[in-house]
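Re-run requested by the PI after the first attempt was lost when the workstation crashed. Everything re-entered from the original request form. Ligand of interest: pyridoxal-5'-phosphate.
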Amino acid sequence: MNVFDVYPLFDITPVRAQGAYVWDEKGDRYLDLYGGHAVISIGHSHPHYVKRIARQLYDIGFYSNSVQMPMQQELAEKLCELSGYHDYSLFLCNSGAEANENALKLASFHTGRSKVIAFKGAFHGRTSAAVAATDDEKIQAPINKTDNFIFLPLNDIAAFENALQEHGSELAAVIVEGIQGVGGVQLPEPGFLQALARGCDKTGALLILDEVQSGHGRSGKFFAHQHTDLKPHLITMAKGMGNGFPVAGVLINPQIEAKHGMLGTTFGGNYLACAAALAVLEVMQEEKLMENAHNIGQRLMHELRHLPGVKEVRGEGLMIGVELDKPCAAIRKQLLEEHQIFTGSSSNKNTLRLLPPLCIGMREVDAFLTAFEAVLYQTEPQAI
Ligand SMILES: Cc1ncc(COP(=O)(O)O)c(C=O)c1O
């Protein structure tokens, strides 16, 4: 049997990883400025994380969600301590798409409505409602097509207000990424997010902040939307939450009442997932990784703006989009093959995405900048 072919693959076989580095089976070392797609938050194979999960596995790895699991409460409390969302509750699941699927479903249950506003360039996952909220028809199968989802341009308050006039009374939710990732690191403006919150309050719709990629300290704050004064009704999180262990969650505003049967999961919030998620938060706190993401991100973005062929640098903390004056595919390939550096792409072919582990230091950043500059100088003549 073969593995179903879902992605184009690099010809690299990682077998070991530590901090911001990955080694392949030949012993070659790679600098990871991609973080396995924004997943590696505290660094690969962090000793505290490894110990906490391993210790848990010796005690108990799994039982169903039909019994008491105090670790889930411990995780909820730790999340509330780091994020500041004290009165919210936590629903645990396994992936980003699932978190968004559950958030959209909760909004629909709560409002009794079915229309959703999403934004151009959005990516919310590949399950049914999540993919319907994603602005990419190529990944929507006929079964996912629905006219319940309305796509508006990001940061266009007038378009949002017009849509509210037309659909306000049918609206269950507005879903927006804290920072658009797949869309090429596009930042929602603070005034725009606040207009969304006001519009939701006015119509009774729920505001869902998708922090799957931009959450867990990546932006330098716990959630990217916390750069703005705003409290969404639902916040979804995944990637950095488990540093590679599949765990995701939805933070739920207290005005949304839980009823048995609304949501459920077999694997969500299992002992190992809780151990991984707790270890991530403990390391984030102990090693001040949010501050590191902010400081290193500022310096990296500043340096990037001076490189040849760089048109724009967008981002917050360690979620950075570098828009070049040419497609970035060849540059990423060269960085990987000649300099052993992983970087990310986006749906905008000129935008290179940097999503390093939050523990990265200036030594790694300088090594990347030297390599990137060399590659950009080399490729510049062909761009003209
Ligand atoms: C903002 C955002 N939401 C949702 C998802 C889906 O997450 P998952 O692949 O864990 O289902 C992603 C994945 O890239 C994402 O970037």
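Saved to the shared folder this time. The chain has eleven helices and 14 strands.
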